[in-house]
Design brief:
41% of the residues lie in helices and 35% in strands. The termini are far apart.
Amino acid sequence: MEDILLVTLIILFTISLILIALIVLIDKKNRKIKMLESQLDILNSNRTVATLKKLSGRKNYRVKVYNCPAELTILDSEENKFKKLNGKKFDGSIEDISLSGVRIKCEYSLPVNVKFKLRINFTLKNEEFKLDALLIRKEEHFKIKSITYGIEFIEPQQEEIKRLAFCLHSLESEKKRFS
């Protein structure tokens, strides 16, 4: 009787060791899968950026957007007399966007030929973005009483660019699907 009990314990112990070894092996495989998925995401985002650039002769492909509100905050000015505007917020609507900047329409008029550093906040495809930018160009439209600014992103984080690239690619895919 004791021999049967001893053999049973040895078998149970062996089965336990095998199960533990399998659990460890499965855990290692799951970690490897997650690492490979992460690498695949990076490759896909790089491919998306390259595809968007290829679609246009421009530095970055522009995607038209509709009803995309944005909030702009003046961070700094190159001229001291405009430093009092630091912190001023105003609203606008993004007309088109690329990986390097936006064209935004608004009613707030900033002086011409003065470089302003801005922070632009907007949501695109349920993704929130906060990017620092420079005011590059101003176009006044007298007939419709609006102003359009060309704004270039400065020092964007790589993660922000990847997220933006996915959003732009998604918007372009939707346009192609519905056209």
